[in-house]
């Protein structure tokens, strides 16, 4: 049940070792130290969807969490509402204006383009000769966006540059304007981990570049491959053998991809 509940691009995080005291809410709650915090962010899971699911699945993991937790209704999504700005609002507390993350593909009037045209055709250009560029923080900047591991990370030649700082290449975490909860936990002596859908989500490290101890970002737009460690996870073929929407072209594939996330988080919890 839990694996299906977390389906579709679930980002999950383990924040360990930060002492936090539970506070009474609407009644008496015994105070205790919190040793682990798990943040689960599910794209497209609306508040009404969650309420309806809990009501119709009272024995589910989400229903159990709801009974033992607090449902905060005086909130709203980021504007615009999408994976990048949405997650940024959760892990920084900032709006897109504050965090600087409006979407994973935007335009910046100050920076210069990457040295090379990236994997999705966003053009490279000269620095500092050209000012103003498309800024891609999605699969476009992987070393090889066809592969589940992104080809081993980010291709520096696909990253935008700062013409006012010696044309220095800007990593995703350096683009973020504010710190993250991961950096706060690290400052408090805790351990952190995060699992997401692109290698570029290393921006969760925050401006320090050191917020996340254990980051895992398998490329969701890569070409699906067999995952023998999970029963029945053979890739479902699709017409065009290019990455395109990759694992999200079939529900079977996305369930298998999500199994990677679930197992990764279990491994992170287990240390």
Q: What is the element string, with H for helices and E for strands?
A: HEEHHHHEEEEHHEEH
Distance between the termini: 24 Å
Integer average pLDDT: 87
Count of helices?
8
How many β-strand stretches? 8
Shape assignment: globular
**Percent of sequence in beta strands:** 5-15%
Low-confidence stretches: 1-10, 16-25
Helix content: 10-25%
Please list the strands of the largest sheet in the order they lie side by side: 2-1-7-8
Structural class: alpha+beta
Radius of gyration: 20 Å
Structure description:
The chain has 271 residues and is of the alpha+beta class. The protein has a domain at 2-95 and 174-218. The chain is 24% helix and 15% strand. The protein is built from eight helices and eight strands. It has helices spanning 2-5, 47-56, 61-67, 83-92, 96-99, 172-175, 181-187, 251-270; strands spanning 11-21, 33-41, 105-108, 133-136, 161-162, 168-169, 191-195, 214-216. The strands form three sheets. A four-stranded mixed sheet has the order 2-1-7-8, sandwiched between helices. Strands 3-4 form a two-stranded antiparallel ribbon. A two-stranded antiparallel ribbon has the order 5-6. Helix 2 packs across helix 3 (61-67). The longest helix has 20 residues, at 251-270. The protein is globular. The two termini are 24 Å apart. 34% of the residues are buried. The model is unreliable at 1-10 and 16-25 (pLDDT under 50).
